[in-house]
Amino acid sequence: MPACNCYGDPADRELHAVGCCVCALYVGAPPQKQLTLEEAEHLLGRFGFHLEQQPDGRYVAVDPARGLQTPNGSSRNTAHDPTELAGLVVRARCTDQLAGPMLISEATATLAALGFELKTRDHRTFGRQWWATSQVLAVSTSEWGYLKDVVATARSWLAQSRYHAVRQPDLPAILAQLPRDLDPKLRERSPRRSPPAESGGESPPASCAAPATLPDGPRQISLGLEAPQKSGAVKSWPTRREARRKRRS
Q1: CB distance 112 to 130 below 8 Å
Q2: CA 106, CA 65: separation in Å to the nearest integer?
Q3: Helix count (H) and strand count (E) of the chain?
Q4: Which of 111, 98, 42 is nearest to 66 (CA)?
Q5: What are phi and psi of 228, to 5 degrees?
């Protein structure tokens, strides 16, 4: 999460002055002031939250327009003491930036235009959860903590259904345009055969000659590894003694 915009946002500027902005999460945070109930209520109201007292006398921050509560879910047992209101304001500001500006009314209207119905429940462990269902598509989004995630998931479901509706009728035409090399039946090639020898052509080398059969012995195969025979036309190199004798003479 980025630091606060204390230079361009009036709410962040006021929170930064008392050390209750998002900068409190990082090293080098501004000094934090201990807040009273009135000061905490005023700062929370700058971004849509307000204080709500629990039966045990501790406080949470609630935004009913967006369905947000901080602390939420299993962390409700860690509601803030009246002496810890500065930390509560910091947590509420983080929730405000993560959730975004989408209201329940806006999410309901957006989902209705997409053919979805918004639903919610208060989970004992995860707190307030939201999801949407579509009877036409017969799908249900996953449970999310923020409304923007529910709307994004519903839009992805709708885009996927439109893709299938458009592409399925065109599938045979698309397959017909594929190259013929992609047909598995045409990939089967006949075994490679050597070309027939032409009459009057060059004879194969001696190393590839047919095996010779001796009259009084077993069949032998020539691999062409015999040492080359000496020929009188080839002059051998002189030995060292012959070279010295030739230089002296």
Answers
A1: no
A2: 10
A3: 6, 8
A4: 98
A5: -65, 140
Whether 197 contacts 203, CB under 8 Å: no
pLDDT tens readout for residues 146-163: 999 999 999 998 888 776
Structure tokens given for 148: 């923007």
User: 107 burial class (0-12, 13-18, 19+ CB within 10 angstroms)?
Assistant: buried
Residues 6+ apart with CB under 8 A from 107: 118, 130, 147, 148, 150, 151
Distance in angstroms (rounded) separating the CA atoms of residues 195 and 208: 16
Question: What are the tens digits of pLDDT across the range 182-197?
Answer: 555 555 555 555 555 5
Q: How far apart are CA 131 and CA 117, in angstroms?
A: 8
Please give the structure tokens belonging to residue 53.
């007292």
Query: What does the block give as tokens for 248?
Result: 């002296």
Q: How far apart are the C-alpha atoms of 139 and 131, rounded to whole Å?
A: 11
Q: Cα separation of 35 and 90, whole Å?
A: 12
